[in-house]
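Please check what follows.
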Amino acid sequence: MAAAAAAAAEALPAEWIKNWEKSGKSEFLQLCRSLSENTTFKGIQQALYALAYHVVKGDLKHDQASNVLSDVIEFRDDMPSILADVFCILDIETSCLEEKSKRDQFMQLVLACLYLVSDTILKERLDPETLESLGLIKQSQQFNQKSVKIKTKLFYKQQKFNLLREENEGYAKLIAELGQDLSGNITSVLILENIKSLIGCFNLDPNRVLDIILEVYECRPEYDEFFVPLIESYMYMCEPQTLCHILGFKFKFYQEPNGETPVSLYRVAAVLLQHNLIDLEDLYVHLLPVDNAILEEHKREIGEAKQIVRKLTMVVLSSEKTEEKEKEKEKEEEKTEKPPDNQKLGLLEAMLKIGDWQHAQSIMDQMPPFYATSHKPIAVALCQLLHVMIEPLYRRIGVPKGAKGTPIPPLQNKRAPKQVECFEDLRKEVFNMLCSLGPHLSHNPILFAKVVRLGKAFMKEYQSDGSKQEDKEKMEVLFSCLLSITDQVLLPSLSLMDCNACMSEELWGMFKTFPYQHRYRLYGQWKNETYNSHPLLVKVKAQSIDRAKYIMKRLTKENVKPSGRQIGKLSHSNPTILFDYILSQIQKYNNLITPVVDSLKYLTSLNYDVLAYCIIEALANPEKERMKHDDTTISSWLQSLASFCGAVFRKYPIELAGLLQYVANQLKAGKSFDLLILKEVVQKMAGIEITEEMTMEQLEAMTGGEQLKAEGGYFGQIRNTKKSSQRLKDALLDHDLALPLCLLMAQQRNGVIFQEGGEKHLKLVGKLYDQCHDTLVQFGGFLASNLSTEDYIKRVPSIDVLCNEYHTPHDAAFFLSRPMYAHHISSKYDELKKAEKGNKQQQKVHKYITSCELVMAPVHDAVISLHLPKVWDDISPQFYATFWSLTMYDLAVPNSSYEREVNKLKVQMKAIDDNQEMPPNKKKKEKERCTALQDKLLEEEKKQSEHVQRVLQRLKLEKDNWLLAKSTKNETITKFLQLCIFPRCIFSAIDAVYCARFVELVHQQKTPNFSTLLCYDRVFSDIIYTVASCTENEASRYGRFLCCMLDTVTRWHSDRAIYEKECGNYPGFLTILRATGYDGGNKADQLDYENFRHVVHKWHYKLTKASVHCLETGEYTHIRNILIVLTKILPWYPKVVNLGQALERRVHKICQEEKEKRPDLYALAMGYSGQLKSRKHCMVPENDFHHKDPPTRNAVPTTVQNGPGGAGLPPALTINAAKLEESTAEETDKLKEKSQGAVKVINKAANTTPKVTTSNGNSASNSKVIKEKEDKEKCGKEKEKEKKEKTPAATPEAKALGKDGKDKPKEERANKEDKARDTKEKTPKSDKEKEKAKREEKSSKDEKSKVIVTNAESKSTAEKEREKEPSRERDVTKDMKSKESIRGGEKMPVAGSLKSPVPRSEASDSEREQKRRKVDTHSSPSHSSTVKDNLSELKDSSAKHYINHSTPTLSKSKEREEDKKDLDKSRERSREREKKDEKERKDRKRDHSNSDREVPQDSNKRRKEENGTTGSSKHSKSESPSDSPRSNEKEKEKNKSKSSSKEKGDLIKVEKMEKSSSGSKKESRHDKEKTEKKEKRDSTGGKEEKKHHKSSDKHR
């Protein structure tokens, strides 16, 4: 009460009470108004309470209060109720007080306010006693009794039917009514009437009746058609929710911890739901567990699955294992307490059983994916429903032939979904059902098989073409649905099946109709996503990995079979997981490859396909580095995978398309690492090996037919590749990958360097380049041997398209086209043979040549576009195409290889005979195999030899048109090497051998305009650049090429007879080069055997120099490549002791330097060093290798103008010297080199011949026996003339063509012999032989000189007139020269004067002699320099020839003007010379008398030498007949040549002066006089001989 007083004082202050009438009342009203505006009535309640409390206390009168309250009551509608609440509280409070006054005050207040509050409200709120005292009720006791009665009536009395009034008999009758036999004419309408009667009669509760009807229906489920209409009719009498509540109440009854809801109840609920008698939403809330609980359970399951995975992947120690097991047992015991039924799933199962898919689907949608179907009964029920759904369609198109199958009856339920009649119907329900089923289709393998077979049938229809556009669109949609079903249902279900190989094969039946892109997409999803979608699959994945680890740990070569079976079992269900693990192991341990490949024999077709996908995925793994950490080698994991690929694709029938496409895509993206895979696959599947380590025997075998290649060409005997190579071919052709792969590889070769190679180590770039190139060669080889002619020709475009449109490098383009040409020619040849039968060899050859022409003509036209027009001036398109289109198979028959293999087979047969243990039938089989193979080889050999004969005949006919030499021979050789030899010799090992063989062949065919000597010289002279620019494998092939070239050269070097037979009279060994014509014949122009030996020594020296240079660079590539090349050419080089020692020292140094730094170079160097030491016994001293003269101390310091023998460039070339001024700086460098060479030669001559220095009348010599010499020369010339007339075949010009170059070396030999005599060598026999040889040479030279002069006659008369003056000058210039030379090189001769008889080359020859002398005093090869320069002159001379063909003919007027100028100049010079000549003549007359007196022992020899030299110089004026119409040009060129020869002369002069000053000063004056006399006599002799020539020309 105190608290109430305080509250009242707060709400109604005492001041307001005191001044109530004045201000208190109004303020109280204002307060009440403001409080009444609030939504809550707490404030107003307090204010009213405060007012009433003041009245009870007596501070305020009750009438004052009632007046205020009458105003306040209007403020709110609920104010009477609030006021009644206040009175109620005060009633309780005042009744507890002892003070009666306060109670009275309260009663008076209530009485005063009765008009404000209604009686009913007060009766509700106030105490009955208070109400009685207020007079509102009569007696409180009666009031209490009445209220109790009302409450009882309201809450406890059953209004309609009391249980006591219900009679049990009614329920018994009801049950009897419902349980009677319903098979007769009893209908639900009849029974309903009876039930109504029973309810009325026995006062039955209608809800109870409904409950009993449901109970009876549960017990009699087969009478759906009776009960459903009954319940439906009955429901019209009830409230709509009643049925749902009764069912809900039934379900609630079973929700006890161990309660089990009966199946019958689920079924009844399902049927009622299906007939829409209740709503699913209404019933769903009555079922347990709630959805959140289901979600939690699902999450828990996933967590548990992940926990299991973690445990399986953890490494558990044995002590921990026992603890883990105990804990697991405890957990399992806890789990035994069974949770209540999942009523939602039970209802779902019932729905599926009766075919109510709509409601079932809506329940599933409210649960996590696959949660419902993860319960086996539901999955089984759904499967059963699917069986029924697809039955008609499956029966119609899915049943395999011969299978009966059990028909499945349809559901009796009319409301069940319609069965599927066509593919289109599958989309409506079946696909949704399957998607809901997910991986749990595994519970019913039969349904799995049916679905797959339907898929197969659909694919058959989908791939047939006959459908309309609309149908096609529908089919597309169905196809995408099928793919989804495969991804979401079929593959995951396969994972859950327990190693069912039949299902795997069944699935493959459908899968193989998909393109591999779709298949691989499905495998990718299966492997990387499916296993994470469901806890059960997560567990399966972990178990599969665990099992795979177990198997792989125990897999060895010995237990392949049992392990293979285990792998097979595991792979049927979870191939992706297994193979992923296996591949990861193979990448780590490559020794697993063989056992794994062998153990995969128990896989199904689907598994093999999955394996292919897993391999590609492993290859494409972006996280793996393709290079090792040193960035110079390809990673071992990639190498292991590639090797595994090759082995597994060969052994098992796996589809290759995906892998091949992957490689192609990588190439398109500019990545060539993965070519390793293609290389391995082709090697293993087709048996085509690509290795640089082939022996020469293998290489030889590779040049034979297919059978020989297979038997003797490879390291491993790769047998039974027929099927696998066929598979590879089919894959390439079916997916059109054959040509694209070739082109991509060909383009990628350069891509490796210029696109990929930027950041990479040079070693790696080389490796990748080699890998790319080798794979191209191997792949091209595979296509060539496996594709039919039609396939090949259809796919490979023509050569110009390949090169110009596809930008294929020329070598690769011809490599691809070559088999096409061969196929084409052979098919044409066969056609011609059939058309016209004639077995004569000649006819066959003719037909073959015809077919070649037919096939190759378009190729000749096509190749023209590949190079600039200038190229075709030197080599013809025909030659180019012939070179690139032939192979070693066409050039030679490897008889020894055939013989070797046949002998092997014979040995095998003998071994089979001797083998006692072998059973007879096996013996017989083996022998038959060997015999058949032997016959095949012999047949193949015969076939090839016939083919080679035909090819050689064809080449013989073609060769005259091969080399056009419109520019120069040097240029021709350059083009030949640049466009043919070098690109091809590094293409493959066989091509390397082919190039060497082809050069030899061109030489043997006596091809016009081909200088064999030049060609070999260019190949051996400077190999540094070629070696440095090779990759590792190219270096190996280049080494092979050099080896074969050296083989040929060494054969010629080894024996004079061989040399004379194979080179002696061949145009390739002419040392004088003419502009055109046939290079035949004159012996004097040929390089003789001894000089050839010098040349070979020079080449060996050059190779040594280049090798040492490369070894000293310190560059990795240089050193590696030169060591590879040296190893390859070891059989033929080094042959000379000192060169071998130089190499050995250098290689030893490399071994020491690189041991720590670059171990791979160290290994190469050590290998080579060992082999080099082992071949030391084969090396010979230099004197044995070629005839080397010891240098003598008392050398004569003579100043020589022209070298011995004048064997330099012919006048035809001298004339063209001016051309050099127009040509490049390179050529002028060459000139300098030549002039220096000449000086060396002179030095050499001076060194070795103390008293005699023979020359062309220019050097000071012992002038003796001139007359004798002249007589002999004349005789020789006459003989020669006769010979020439007898043999008209060779044109005189052609013979003259390479004369000088060969003369010179012969004279050198003569010199040597003189020297040898002087130094008293004890080899008289050899000297005599040499004398004979000299005589022959002399006569041939003489012969040539005559022939050449005849050419002059063929000039036009106009030119002859023009030449009259020059001819006079000729003699004069000759004398001048001799004079100048006597003066010791004070003045150089003008070699280029018109028709000058002394060729420019003579000057260079003299230098060459000096050079030779210089060289001899050093350890460098002695005579090689001579020939080197000889050859370099050949090069230059041929370069100078260029003008003859390429200079456009000028207009006549211009020519005449130029000619006049030239003539004027030459006349001035000749006048000067005439004066000098007169002096000379006088001198000669003086000396003539002395000459007869002094005839030393060696005079004969000298005579011969002089003969040769003078001859060659005199003849040097000849021109080819073809040039005569262009005489004007010739004149011009000759005049031009003056300037260049002057330059040359100056160079020579400088050199000579240096040399002469350093020369020995011991020569006596007497010697000098002798040499002067000799020189004079020579010059006069030369003149006389010249005149004789002229007269003989005229005579003719």
In short: The chain has 74 helices and no strands. The two ends are 172 Å apart (CA to CA).
